[in-house]
Design goal:
The protein is an alpha+beta fold. It folds into two domains: about 130 residues, Rossmann fold, CATH 3.40.50.2300; about 240 residues, Phosphatase 2c, domain 1 (4-Layer Sandwich), CATH 3.60.40.10. The chain is built from nine helices and 17 strands. It has a five-stranded parallel sheet, with helices on both faces. It has a five-stranded antiparallel sheet with strand order 8-17-16-13-14, with helices on one face. Strand 11 and strand 12 form a beta hairpin. Helix 6 packs across helix 7. The chain is elongated. About 30% of the residues are buried.
Length: about 400
């Protein structure tokens, strides 16, 4: 037991009640008390400015304060002190009101013996101490969460900044509206950080490399994987002679990194080189949804497939060989790439939007300009699901051939 006395400030204008309480505390053998008695709240407030105490016992009826004002004013001056209300009424409503105003407990005059008073004082002090600890933990947790949120927001800004801000023109130096290729995209993360990303870069004066990737899941883990893949693309793009070679190199590097983790993580990728001189696309697919070849002049859509057998996603098997395929196009055509967040959204019945519906809606809006087409696809998908937000990252990317 702590030998330090518990310092009690009693605010009570009735001398008889004050004397009785003082005697009860003085006679206890288990806990030493040091009692200070004042008969006005104003005096108690002055006292609290200069003399610390451990607990305040306050009557609800004082000459200069009545009712809950006694609790409220005491808390204003000493918010960290436990307050025990003394009342001559056994009304539960008054007691509950006092507790809501910030008191730790209450005692009914004439009904409390010394044992109850001592227990109430000790419990009130302990509850207030616990309350203060919880408040401190809450502040620390809030500060920690705010720091995490700030870090995530910064990471999001960096991630968004790494997306193409301005598309290259072909040939270099051409005005954007006169470029051989016209690019348009829509990027919508499901969380602060995303697992989708894309990039567009020049190969030569008439060829563009287009890379789109979807890391499994979304959020921090997916964003970390994209952060590993991005520099691999930048490093290997010059070494890889064709799309299949690039995916082979990235896959080997990614498997080597991911095998050191316990979790199964993978990324779907579609990479293509579009050449305006040869009117040909060379591409390789690592488990990614097949892009759509929009032939607006013929009112036709052709999925760009790997003979219906795309290679496995990156990061799963070290010895996978991705092959490069060719696909012709004509001037005026467009290639539409996307990630699965667009069509894997489900409605209340659990039905998936699906690639077939995506193809049909694209066909119905084929004549529209690409920004309007994208807007309609997003609207239809969300309307189907009855949701305002997608549950997975969504990335749409189009390249039109002038």
């Amino acid at each position: 037991m702590n030998d330090q006395p518990i310092r009690v400030l009693l605010i009570e204008d009735n001398p008889s009640d004050a004397r009785l309480l003082s005697e009860m505390l003085r006679d206890t053998q288990t806990t030493p008390f040091e009692l200070t008695w004042l008969d006005r709240l104003s005096k108690a407030i002055d006292r609290l400015h200069t003399n610390p105490v451990d607990v305040v016992l306050v009557d609800l009826t004082l000459p200069d304060a009545t009712g809950l004002d006694t609790v409220i004013k005491t808390r204003e001056i000493a918010p960290d002190l436990p307050i025990i209300v003394l009342t001559g009424s056994s009304s539960d409503e008054k007691a509950i009101a006092a507790l809501r105003a910030g008191a730790q407990d209450y005692l009914v005059k004439g009904w409390a013996d010394s044992e109850l008073i001592i227990r109430t004082i000790r419990y009130a002090i302990e509850r207030k101490r616990t309350e203060a600890e919880l408040a401190r933990y809450a502040r620390e947790l809030r500060a920690y969460n705010e720091q995490i949120q700030a870090d995530l927001l910064l990471a999001r800004e960096v991630q968004m900044a790494l997306l193409p801000q301005h598309y290259p023109t072909f040939p270099p130096g051409t005005k954007p509206e006169q470029s051989l290729f016209q690019f348009y995209h829509h990027y919508q993360p499901a969380a602060l950080l995303a697992g989708d990303f894309f990039d567009v870069f020049p190969i030569n004066d008439t060829s563009a490399g287009i890379f789109i990737c979807d890391v499994m899941g979304h959020g921090i883990r997916a964003a970390l994987i994209t952060a590993m893949i991005r520099p691999l693309v930048d490093e290997l793009i010059a070494k890889a002679a064709d799309p299949g070679s690039l995916l082979n190199e990235i896959n080997r590097e990614l498997v080597s990194i991911l095998r050191q983790t316990d979790a199964t993580i993978f990324a779907t990728v579609f990479y293509m080189v579009i050449d305006a001189a040869s009117h040909e696309i060379r591409y390789a697919n690592a488990g990614h949804p097949a892009p759509l070849h929009l032939q607006r002049s013929r009112n036709t859509i052709i999925p760009i497939t790997n003979n219906n057998r795309p290679g496995p996603a990156l990061g799963l098997f070290p010895d996978t060989i991705y092959t490069t395929l060719q696909h012709p196009f004509e001037s005026g055509d467009a290639i539409f790439l996307y990630t699965d967040g667009l069509f894997e959204i489900t409605n209340a019945s659990g039905d998936e939007y699906g690639q077939e519906r995506l193809l049909n809606i694209t066909r119905q809006n084929l004549a529209r300009p690409t920004p309007e087409l994208f807007k309609e696809l997003l609207r239809d998908s969300q309307q189907f699901a009855g949701a305002q937000e997608f549950i997975d990252d969504v990335c749409l990317l189009s390249v039109e051939i002038a």
